[in-house]
User: Fold this.
Amino acid sequence: MAGWVTMASWRSETRKNITLGEKSREPKFKLRISIRKTHLISTYRGIGLAVVKILLDTFNVNVAAISRTRTPELETLLSDNLLHIQCDVSDEPSLVRAILQVEQHFSHIDGLVLNAAVVEPMCRIGDSTPLSSWKTHFDVNFFSLITAVRAALPALRRSDVGGRIIFVSSGSAVKGTPAWGPYNASKAAMNSLCRTLSEEESKVTSVALRPGVVDTDMQAMLRTTGGESMSAKDYQKFLNYHTSGELLSPDLPGRVIAALSLQAPASLSGRFVSWNDESCTPFRS
Assistant:
């Protein structure tokens, strides 16, 4: 299982590349974090990679990426503006250490984007799928989010621009697609976490965002193996998304996610919104 976290900060004209192990110094920019699990969605085509590119290119920020391995896709982006730290984000102590180390070196954390994208196991609730498989799914899609939020919250509370957390959710959070029990439940839990966090943390804006049906490796996997567990009707629906060209480019929701991580208003805190809702219009351009 692989996963990676990306962190970005406002650029300073005099900033040099900072890697772990260098002497810490007070920067002139803020740190912004984006977290994602990429067991099924690759960094090449996934939403998380799109967010990183947009933060780098459109919003002129520096980015630090945390991942278990350094992928070829990430290699092509490495520069003075992209810091990489190797870490298994499903390992609680490792992820906590990584986030705290980044805060130590960059001094500020202003935003957190949480993108959990594991869909397996695809099974019906009454199947004989081991409960341990459900627990592993929740370790990735839900409990890793709590780890990241807890580690980043102290810095987010101190942010002088207002801390922001963007939960990349799914329409599955409010649906009951057969054979998607673990995914449906974990995304619903994510939305609940967002709502509760918004009530508990008045200084932090938390938003759950539905990115739509995006052209990612998860979609490719569903077209390849989804027919083994999904109903014929649901499976055909995902095939049709592809053949009809309805799948969204990751850049479309990625642009909204990146912009929200920088500018999400307090009025959206605790809400579950779609990337193409009217409330997100200012963040699409």
About this structure: The chain has one domain: 3-213+250-283. The beta strands are 3-10, 31-37, 61-67, 82-86, 111-115, 163-168, 204-210, 272-274.
